[in-house]
Amino acid sequence: MAATLTQERFTGPEWIFERKFDGIRLLAFKNGSDVRLYSRNHLPQNIPTLSRAIAKLPHKELILDGEITWHGPLNYDVFDIMWIDGRDLRTSPIEERQALLSQLPLSPPMQRVESLADEAPWERAQREGWEGVIAKRRGSIYESRRSPHWLKMKCELAQEFVVGGFTDPQGKRVGLGALLVGYYEGDDFVFAGKIGTGFDTKLLTELRAQLDKIELEKAPFTKSKGLPRLRAHWVKPEIVVQVGFIQWTVHGKLRHPRLLGVRTDKDPREVVRE
Question: What is 1-18+115-155's CATH number, 3.30.420.40, 3.30.1490.70, 3.40.30.10, 3.10.180.10?
C-alpha cells in the first residue's frame, strides 16, 4: 500500500498520524523459521540481523510492512501487519491491524511506529528534521495500490515570491485559477511557477480584487521559460506571498507549491531565490 502526496495540512479524529521515514520500504514474510525480505520493487534483501529477529517471533506465519532506516544503527520501523498464522488481515480495519501489531514482542533491530498525538504533527516533523508525516484514515483496509486513505505530507521548503500574474478560474472555482510567481535575480524578474493550492474562497476573491487594480498588458517576467499564455493575466510585481514547496525542479520551477499567506512586510525587490 502506497501513500498519496497531499499539499493539505489537516487533523481530525478520522485520521491516524505517523512519522514518515526516509528509508527503504521492506516487506517481511515469515513461514516457520524461514524469513524472506523484499523491497517495494519485489527485490530480495539480505539483512541477517533482521531475519534472525523476525524468526524468533512467536508466530508461525507473519507478513509485516515497514521501513529500513539508519537513524542511528539499522532499524526496521514496522507500521503494519497483513497476515498472521493463516489469517489474512488486509481486509481488517487499520485499528485492528495496529492492535495486533502492538502485541508482537518486537526486538532490535525492529521497532513499532507509534501514532502521533501532536496538534500539528507536520510542524513537529519540520522542527525535528523528519521527511514528513503519514495520515492514515481510520477504518481503512490494506490496499495493494497507491491509496487516498494513506496521505503523505512531506516537509517543505518555504520562501517569499512576487506575484507577476494569474490565470482565470476554471469550473466552480472563483477569483483566480493560479498565481504566477517569480523572484529577482539582479535586474531580472524570473518566473518560478504557478500556485494553485492553499486558497479559500475568501482569499481567492480578495486577491482577484487586488490584482485587477494593478493589471498590466504585458508579462513583467524577463526570464519566463514555461510561462503559461492561455487565460493568463499580468500584474505589476507588487504583491509578495509566502509559499511552501517540496523542492526546486531541474528546470528551476517549484515542485508541489502551496500558498501559505500574503506578506505585507516585504519589499518585492528584495525577494530573491534562497
Answer: 3.30.1490.70
Q: Which residues are catalytic?
A: 20
Closest of 225, 219, 206, 217 to residue 164, by C-alpha: 219
Q: Is 89 left (phi over 0), alpha (psi -120 to 50) or beta?
A: alpha
Cβ atoms 20, 11 nearer than 8 A: no
In CATH terms, the fold of domain 22-112 is D-amino Acid Aminotransferase; Chain A, domain 1 (3.30.470)
Query: What letter represents residue 213's amino acid?
Result: K
pLDDT 10s digit of each residue in the chain, 274 long? Answer: 999 989 889 999 999 999 999 889 999 999 999 999 999 888 999 999 999 999 999 999 999 999 998 877 899 999 999 999 999 999 999 999 999 999 999 999 999 999 999 999 999 998 888 889 999 999 999 999 999 999 999 888 889 999 999 999 999 899 999 999 999 999 999 999 999 999 999 999 999 999 999 999 999 999 999 999 889 999 999 999 999 898 899 999 999 899 989 998 889 999 999 8
At residue 97, φ and ψ (nearest 5 deg) are -65, -40
The residue to which cell 490494506 is assigned: 142
Under CATH, domain 157-270 is a member of which superfamily? Nucleic acid-binding proteins (2.40.50.140)
